[in-house]
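re: that chain from earlier
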Amino acid sequence: GTSRHRTPHQMSSSWLKHRHLPKVLGLLVVCSFFLALECGASLMEEKSRLDRILDVLDEDAELWWRQRSDLDVTFFGGQVRTDAQGWRRVEPAPTVPSAVDREPFRILVLGASPSFGWGVDDNQTYASLLQAAASRELGRPVEVRNGAGIGYSSHQGLVLLDRTLATWSPD
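^ sequence. v structure.
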């Protein structure tokens, strides 16, 4: 007679084909499904707080960082616009009738995130509010520049003061 002995290879391939192939394929489908869900979830994930901050900053050799130039973004709930230097824009004060043709009184705001105006629109920063109130009270134009920066320390404030005094003279 003919012997029905199978080699180990024939036994394992037969075992896989007949008994466990549907289970292995099912497991692969389930793993693929969960992998696709994980990829989709990571695409929908909101940026971390730090990533959102870093999105609006540039490196600076002396300051270590500064706000990006010419921003126009919503940042932690407030509309933030910066000028060519990366300074927060200050909303123009209403014109005071008696202030026509007078030199503006110049004020420089330095500081950290609260002075920058974290979480508020440009017209709600205290630099914008100061400009409007000072113009009304002094009866003359007031120009406020907001040099405050996100997370700045006294080191950055001193560097900015030195840089600013070289080109602009606050009163």
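The chain has a mean pLDDT of 85.
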